[in-house]
Amino acid sequence: MSLYEASFRVRHECPYREISERHPDLTIREWYLSDCQVIEITAPGDPSDELIAEIDAIGTVLHESVDETGLHVVTQSCLCSLEDSIIERFESHNCLYQPPTVHRQGWEHYTVIAFDEGDVRALLRDLEADRDIEVLSKTSIAEQEIPHSMLAPVDRLFEDVTERQLAALRLALESGYYEQPRKTSMRALADMTAVARSTYEEHLRKAENKLLTNAGQFLRLVNASSTADPLAVNTGRSDEQAAD
After folding, report:
1. I want to staple 30 with a disulfide (CB 3.0 to 4.6 A). Which of 62, 101, 139, 225 is the partner?
2. Can you give the pLDDT of all 244 residues of the chain as single tens digits?
3. How far apart, in whole angstroms, are the C-alpha atoms of residue 178 and residue 168?
4. Are 123 and 93 within 8 A, CB to CB?
């Protein structure tokens, strides 16, 4: 079984793309979160007053610095709604979006991965219908070539996990509950909180279940082309040898 990767660039109305068109030396990287975007902006040299003003208008500045390599800014913004967005089109064609989106010289650059080449073709036809698009590459990915940089978006991994469930999961992780051997117990973890053991355990189990469920599509990608089952019975070798 093969995977298919497509990289392309598009033009459509978007403030980040338009800024990159007005400032061709600028590179903007965009990550989508549940209710906002996080934007990383880099540019060589000292920034102009005009550029600084445009950046300030984008959203809340989380970090800003200028050094010998140029300008570095990270902002958080809610300017672009994700409703009826290009990301939703990727999902409707069973294509997995690979962040970040890169805005440079008036173009938005995207990469998607799919299990069926027909899904990639259908997506590209859909996008060509209402925006300028240039396909940069479209390749088949063998098992050995699946990129390790193919990271899952954080908001997708933690989708539907509540704040209490996240707090329970973080406490367990930082206390060594998932280490081998375990450094703490469920009772000890619950004693560190203001809730009963049964309540804490419920929060933790729900967090684990949701996290693994959300990670399922990415696990499937990693094992998409595997032909060998590492858990299959391997005669002639002891458990100690298999563990080496």
Report:
1. 101
2. 578 889 999 998 788 888 899 998 889 888 876 566 778 888 887 778 888 888 888 778 888 888 777 788 888 776 444 445 788 889 889 898 888 889 999 999 999 988 888 999 999 999 998 889 999 988 887 644 555 444 455 566 777 888 899 899 999 999 999 998 999 999 999 999 999 999 999 999 999 998 888 777 666 555 554 555 666 666 555 555 555 5
3. 13
4. yes
Q: Residue with structure tokens 């109305």?
A: 13
Burial (CB < 10 A; 0-12, 13-18, 19+), residue 111, is: buried
Q: Residue 240 is encoded by which pair of tokens?
A: 């100690």
Q: Using the structure block, give the residue that is written with the tokens 């070539």.
A: 145
Pairing type for strands 96-97 and 107-114 reads antiparallel
Question: Please, are residues 208 and 168 in contact by the beta-carbon 8 Å criterion?
Answer: no
Q: Which residues contact 101 (CB under 8 A, 6 or more apart)?
A: 29, 30, 31, 32, 108, 109, 110
Q: What angle do CA 58, 49, 38 make, to 5 degrees?
A: 25
Cβ-contact 165, 203 below 8 angstroms? yes
* Tokens of residue 195, six digits: 């809730």
Q: CB-based burial of residue 228 (10 Å sphere; 0-12 exposed, 13-18 middle, 19+ buried)?
A: exposed
